[in-house]
Predict the structure.
Amino acid sequence: MAIITKVCDEAAGIKTFTLEFKEPEIQKSFDYRPGQFVELTVFGVGEAPISITSSPVNKGYLELTVAAVGKVTRALHLRKEKDVAGLRGPYGNGFPFDEVKGKNILFVGGGIGAAPLRSLINQMFAYRDNFAKISILYGAREPGLLCFIDDLEGWGKTENSEVLLTVDAPDAKWRGNVGVVGSLLPKINIDIKNTVAFICGPPIMIHFVLLDLLKMGFEEEQIITTMERRMECGVGKCGHCNIGKSYVCLDGPVFSYHQLRELGEDI
Amino acid sequence: MKRVLTTCEFCGCGCNFYLGVEDGKVVAIYPSVSHPISQGRLCIKGWQGHEYIHSPERLTTPLIKKGNRFREASWDEAYELIVDKFNQIRTRYENDSIAVFSSAKCTNEENYLMQKFARACLGTNNVDHCARLCHASTVVGLATTFGSGAMTNSINEIAGAEVIFIIGSNTTEQHPLIGDRVLRAIEKGAKVIVADPRETQLAKLCSLYLMHKPGSDVALLNGMMNAIIAEGLEDKEFIAERTEGFESLKETVADYTPEKSSAITSVPEEKIVEAARIYSRSKKSIIIYSMGITQHTTGVDNVMTTANLAMLTGNVGKEFTGVDPLRGQNNVQGACDVGALPNVFSGYQAVTDEKLRNKFEKAWKVTLPPQPGLTLVEMLNSALEGSLRAMYIMGENPMVSDPDINHVEKSLKALDFLVVQDIFLTETATLADVVLPGVSFAEKDGTFTSTERRIQRVRKAIEPLGDSKPDWKIITELSSRLGYRMDYSSPAEIMDEIAKLTPIYGGVSYSRLESFGLQWPCPSPDHPGTPYLHKGSFTRGLGKFSPADYKTPAELPSHDYPFVLTTGRVGFHYHTGTMTRKDWALEREYPTGYVEVNSQDAKQLGIKNGQTAKVISRRGEISLSLKSVDTIAKGVVFIPFHFAEAAANKLTAANLDPVAKIPEYKVCAVRLEKG
Amino acid sequence: MKILSKSNLVPFLEGLGLEFKVNAPLYEGQDVLFGDLDSLKLATDFIGKPRLSPKEYSFPQRERLFTFKNNGGVEIEAHLNETKRVIWGIRPCDLYGLKFLDMVYLSDYVDPYYQARRSNTILLGLNCNKAEESCFCSSIGTGPFAREAFDLLFTDLGDVFLVEIGSKAGKKLIEKQANLFTNATTLEQVQGKLLEEKSKKTFKTSIDLGKIKAKIAAASGNPIWAEEAVKCILCGGCNWVCPTCQCFNVEDIKAGHKTQRVRYWDSCQLGGFTQMAAMNSRATQAERLRQRIYHKFSYNPDKYGGEIGCTGCGRCIDVCPAGINIAYILRRVAN
């Protein structure tokens, strides 16, 4: 059982919910890795898998950023502070962290896809000295759909870290880059050999950014992304999220591009 | 777990399956391998369509309207109010100021009682049901040509045909177990010709596909007959011995050269001729048709023309031949058979025929009205115009299923009193003054008659939910309170009465239905039932060639409304979705409506696949998602009618066939705009 | 091995009925379905398999998982079914199906609902002396006689059943009604073996499993998927009847203050199975058909150490209203 302690509008049609577990023992012991997700129950409506966007370094609460796109998420958007929701998890494999220490990190995010990346970025920034240059490329269809504006600002101000933003369709006030997020790639200067890239966003964005990164010289194992599939049980039983012999909820949702190519099913 | 064998509540195939019952709830489905039609197979609705039975939204008590809201009421209260109001209206106006709208989803026993209630209790022939909206053309058209308005042959013959000509039927999607037989025929080498404005699944699998313009069926079929006669492929012996009126047919179709037919239908000449040759060269040719040809202002003409084609080639009255109208709902055939129609008693016995009427007057011990009553759309028109003051609607949802919904709403609201009996609070029930909770097919005994005239048992598996009552019980109780006593201990007794008064059902009784039913005509208790009709002679004696000329649909595209809208169904939903939209597997597949638009048209309109489009007709407008396809011609769009929130019938017009009074759901004019 | 005379079958099952819920194949009219033991309807002489496998005793078509009661706080009440059960008359294909589902559900995160039912169920198999037209278990190696995954295994020798003991639980059942059983003679055991050989010769449908295993990984571009998928009417029948199909959907059903979480069998042949808000990861029927075959012959074997996810029962062939035939498809893949 979790109580919603805060609801804030993240972007158009997207809200960030802060939740705390009702049971103090669970609140204390609940630990997770960036990239994992929880199954959230909106009582009387149903259950949906949502990526955790807060970072494990922040103890005592969970943050979930949710777009209202289905039955459960639309009902969730009507919930307010003090309402109770159900949580189970964390599920999934999480992003590599220790394994990428010492490297340059390139983040490429699109829209609400940045939610799991935010968890990883903030965790990395909490241990900033363990990583070399951090470049964050982020875009959305329009300015109103950009999430985590405050975080982005903070990240950009940190040493040896850069944030580049873009939108597909600007509004009158937009002064930044215009174009898909891949159009930001030529604007960064990194030592590709010692870089790991994390991509998270709409499937079509991932598809094109992947091609761009490979062209730039990234190896398949250097590119990490998350796969999205229809998920229900979250524990590899209900069968919905399989890609080849892997279940996205068990063996993913984080995969390296190399692993994806070995999955045995077209993605 | 208890297993109860019953007949499916969805399409007219008439599959059987076992309902698995545990703790008083339906929790599982088991197919019946020995059933002659189902043969252990089911479609998705059969497998997964029954969760609605236990939906928390089921009506479980009577409801009475108070202001704008409903309050729960007892049966006594509800009945008393209805009796009061009906009596008031009957006294103040005349008997014909009340109309009864029976249900093709309810059992034969219930439909029989509904028409008996209207006639014997209320003294009116204003009783009709949704066959009016789907196969009224068939009932009239085949009765005129053959003398009997039902599927001439049986489903199991289809797999043995050499040629199957399917016009206006999306068979694999809407009658899956009949589509199954067509596919088996194809495996055995049969030639299948599909004529449909949409490239359906069967169109992709058939030997010859004709994409004809909506409403051009007579031109297409006359064109085929022209080619048959031109090449001397007609069955001269059959024509001479078994038919009358050939000269008149010959004269009419002489006009429809392949050239002229092609110009009207948009089908290339060679294809029309090829279709004609394929169909006529076999003595095992079957015609299958459905809504695609019946739901037109020329519906009767369309049906008669298919009958003409069959008679021309001698492909009727024998096994592996025939004219097979696929009845849509589980019991629309039965509802017609037992007389839920304004002009006939059960067994298609005319109310105007004095001798027949006397037979019923004697049996029912009451004088009966001699003039035919109103048909469905006429009822609604009369309501608006003021001569109809009250309606009793059972198991129907005209607020989504009837043409021109805005007009339907005005008509129903114009009534003094509306009673709706249903299992859910449908869009129509919301307008009622009194709502009575009936039950699903799993909670009552009765019979359904499938499209191949097979009368089969529906068996009660669970108790009625809450305070709801079997529909047949409600009708008897209401009738008794209104002064015409109806007393039946069980539906079996009702069927016994039906059998006594209805020659085609004469040999039917529950004990004889235990083993997969009987196909009518079954005139006596030792008659085995009839797999195919018109053997040796037609029901009317000689088959009557009934030529028709091509007439344009009532509402053609124009400058302001440049697209033809044709409406139809998807295989996952049923009728207005009142049941299937509460089944997760079906709703998940099609959670809402859409409009199918040719990809080039979509490009020109500037609307991408998945974006919202506004579809507007002279009668209303709806907004829904656009599906860009290449299976429909430019200038034609398709909308499935199941979805109340994107109701295709807000756009359709109540243009009726002059004889059958069926609306032209398949053609009206619309324009599309970016939503 | 033991012998149970045919006339002692009903007494044996009724004897079991004192301690267990007993399920067996029953005649409902001319249909054979697994049901609660009814000696008047017991089907002992049928050929082939009931249309649905007995997997639903451990994995039902519809199963209530738990109920939330929302009155101020939220209480959760779980619904586990621990009925002690014996199922008699399970064909070798279905025995393998249950072994396969055990592997799926009792590994990793153990499914407590499946475990509660399955761990309380004893399996009494019945070998097939004759194959039905669609059967191809002999090609997979799962039949016509079973090798494993049974507590007791019956072979119909004509007047008597030959009974093989497969587990301690099975042995106990015999011991409790030892008076009904005698020891099998060598001759009777040989008879059993001969029947198996005879049965193997009755198969009309077969596949080359070796070739399929070799070729399947590279066959995703084979035109067969689109060719067959165009006929599919999305009834899901192939999944509903399959002894190894494992997928399920979960729904929350609210009625007043209570919400029930219920799980249902699901079908990967339905479009909605992989539908997400923004897109469908298997948008064409060809991909879905391929998924079904691959899940059984490629993905599950990869995941579970080579165990084929198909029992060769052939039910999916019988149940399809579009004539899509898995053996035909596999033949095209193999060649």
